[in-house]
Amino acid sequence: MKFLLATLFMVATLATSANAQMKERHAELxxxxxxxxxxVDEVTRQISNQLRLNEGQYIRLRAINKIKLARLxxxxxxxxxxxxxxxxxxxxxxxxxxxxxxxxLTPSQLSIYHADRKQDxxxxxxxxxxxxxx
Length: 134
What we know:
77% helix, Periplasmic heavy metal sensor, mainly alpha, extended, signal
């Protein structure tokens, strides 16, 4: 009976210690958790619908998106006080993502992806200076 109680006490102590260490780790690196599966699925599904990916491409793209989103959160947390470095790291992350996409996507899918990205990044300019100053 004493042995059983001592063992139970030891297990409870170890479990409490491990839990405390994990809380400390989360306090140090709050963005270190993997991105939610819902977010990864949402981003991957959006790209998949846009480019009409097959199942193999979808699976590989989902894995890349999971890594990208985790790294994105990490960069935003790690360089929250240094905007220039954060922007440089985000540009580097995006170029790595595009390199991985070029291994997965067909040339026609890549051109559609790049065209849509440029369209999203290009701000609309007012016609005849409508809404502008002067």
